[in-house]
Amino acid sequence: MIKKLKMEELNRPSVEAFKEAEKTPIAFVLDDVRSALNVGSAFRTADAFGCAEVVLCGFTAQPPHREIMKTALGSTESVAWRHFSETQTALEALRTEGYILVAVEQADASIFLDQIDIDQQKGEKFALIFGNEVEGVSEIAMEMVDFVIEIPQFGTKHSLNISVSVGIVAWEFVKKLRC
């Protein structure tokens, strides 16, 4: 019989140890994300993969917020975050800090996620930009990005929920950068 592990058997670091640990060089940029539940999920994913930070832009909800806390499950305490009133200002700051700006969007020049080749860019930092649930990544952000990635889809719907997209894209980058 397969035994499910108990919480104490997972050997997870404390919040303090996590904050001191080396991070996966990824920042999630949430560009005017409407749902605080999606924001909380992004925090939880950032914690799970040891990502550097979450950057909240525009009207994206900020901790402490009841709905963020509901899905973040305490990860707002472990994951670094900051807020910018304008996405453009956030992206300018991230570029100055050495981040490669990557939009997750459907665009004419997008690269499918399974086809990205970042092997030559190991050691670089990536800012993964996720857009508004209705409008997607803002035009201002699209004008600033270094490249665009798209998650291949085969169904009738044209998009995935942001929380799902964050998880899929983060795992693909983590595999290439850490594994």
Structure description:
This protein is of the alpha/beta class. The chain has one domain: SPOUT methyltransferase, trefoil knot domain (Alpha/beta knot, 3-Layer(aba) Sandwich). Helices cover 35% and strands 21% of the residues. The chain is built from 7 helices and 7 strands. It has a 7-stranded parallel sheet, sandwiched between helices. Helix 2 packs parallel to helix 3. 35% of the residues are buried. The mean pLDDT is 96.
Strand order of the largest sheet: 3-2-1-6-4-7-5
What top-tier CATH class fits best? Alpha Beta
Shape: globular
SS summary, helix count: 7
Q: CATH superfamily membership, which one?
A: SPOUT methyltransferase, trefoil knot domain
Tell me the Rg in angstroms. Answer: 16 Å
> Structural class, from secondary structure content?
alpha/beta
Classify the beta-strand content into a percent band: 15-25%
What are the low-pLDDT stretches, counting only 5+ consecutive residues below 50? none
CATH architectural grouping = 3-Layer(aba) Sandwich
Biggest β-sheet strands, sense, barrel: 7 strands, parallel
Keyword list:
single chain, 179 residues, alpha/beta, Alpha/beta knot, 7-stranded parallel beta sheet, 7 helices, 7 strands
Write a compact overview of the structure shown.
The protein is of the alpha/beta class and 179 residues long. It is built from 7 helices and 7 strands. Strand 1, helix 2 (36-48) and strand 2 (51-57) form a beta-alpha-beta unit.
